[in-house]
Amino acid sequence: MSLTKPEFNFEEGEVLLIDKPYEWSSFDVVKKIRNAIGFIKIGHAGTLDPLATGLLILCTGKMTKRINEFQDMEKEYEGELIIGKTTPSFDLETEIINEKDITKISEEDIKATVSKFIGKIMQVPPVYSAVKLGGKRMYKRARRGEDIKLEAKEIHIKDFIITSIELPAVRFRVVCSKGTYIRSLVRDFGEALQVGAYMSSLKRTRIGHFHINDSDSIEGMIQKIIAGK
Predict the structure, then answer these.
(1) Could you confirm whether 109 is annotated as catalytic?
(2) 74 CB neighbour count, 10 Å cutoff
(3) How confident is the model over 148-160, as a mean pLDDT?
(4) What is the average per-residue pLDDT within 105-118?
(5) Out of 19, 28, 49, 101, which one is annotated catalytic?
(6) Given pLDDT bands bounded at 50, 70 and 90, which one contains residue 195?
(7) pTM for the complete prediction?
(8) Which of 3, 13, 163, 207 has the highest Cβ tally under 10 A?
(9) Domains of the chain, CATH where assigned
(10) Which of 83, 86, 18, 92 is nearest to 49 (CA)?
(11) Does residue 218 sit in helix, strand or coil?
(12) Is pLDDT larger for residue 147 or for residue 56?
């Protein structure tokens, strides 16, 4: 039985759904797919940190005009945080710098604290991020040890659900607006518990109506592109 040959028109515009692997930057993914399709305009709709995995939307050709539209869509994430420990980057990129006793923290405390982060809240982005200040990426300035002050921005958390607790690890699911940093949410959550926290894993599962279940691995997408040429 023969397989149906994929049909692509990259110049007119395609929306490609990629499951970004761990330790790949969003630009790494764009570069890899660009090499496969040739010298055609391509970009991604919403950066994922290298240590995060999951859904990354790539747009080619005329569809790049809709990147901002896709970026504005609601996002959904699944992840894990570790309470009682903190890192400068709020994730595993940097070493643990502080530890606190969590023996008095109960599951009830954790579930009650979640309610403080539902709805419209103010959030300060992490300094280890791709945000630009003075024309320079924050993570580059942070790695040089510069003193950085970022302003809080309003975001919207639609859902923040604890899915499992095996202290010090806490699994969660978040549905949120554009501009939300889950690492900052984890930082603020740990501060509200008064013991600190850092994010140990994160996966983006949905952007608007686009779902991770409909995505391809990088290798799988390249195979489709080659088959369609």
Answers:
(1) no
(2) 15
(3) 88
(4) 96
(5) 49
(6) very high
(7) 0.89
(8) 207
(9) 15-72+208-228 (3.30.2350.10), 75-207 (3.30.2350.10)
(10) 92
(11) helix
(12) 56
